[in-house]
């Protein structure tokens, strides 16, 4: 959910849109459109970690993050690794949102497949990792 990693809980326009999720009430990215997601600001979900950048940045699309990593790799003359984690792929798939196919196609189209690709996928679902390999 978005409650820990964004400022959504402090935005009145989203107050009535939380749902029962895992350990309590939360907001799901799947329930918002891109315009609504762009209104949110990121925050560090772990209180023991650095909070200095909370509220400074918007949520990025994966394509934006990959573009940024590529730009910085060229500027710094070294690889910049992107380490995304898929969140609840089976839950999304059951609702007709199979993003694993889209992620696989995106990596293929950008030449980001194979053991030397600067993208390392995280997932708690092994079939997802196999598909993204």
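-> sequence recovered:
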């Amino acid at each position: 959910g978005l409650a820990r990693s964004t400022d959504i809980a402090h935005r009145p326009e989203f107050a009535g849109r939380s749902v029962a999720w895992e350990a309590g009430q939360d907001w799901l990215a799947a329930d918002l459109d891109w315009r609504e997601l762009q209104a949110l600001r990121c925050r560090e979900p772990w209180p023991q970690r650095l909070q200095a950048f909370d509220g400074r940045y918007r949520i990025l699309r994966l394509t934006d993050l990959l573009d940024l990593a590529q730009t910085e790799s060229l500027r710094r003359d070294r690889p910049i690794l992107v380490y995304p984690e898929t969140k609840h792929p089976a839950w999304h798939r059951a609702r007709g949102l199979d993003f694993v196919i889209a992620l696989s196609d995106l990596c293929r189209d950008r030449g980001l497949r194979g053991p030397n690709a600067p993208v390392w996928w995280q997932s708690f679902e092994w079939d997802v990792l196999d598909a993204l390999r």
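Helices lie at 34-39, 62-76, 89-94, 99-109, 126-132.
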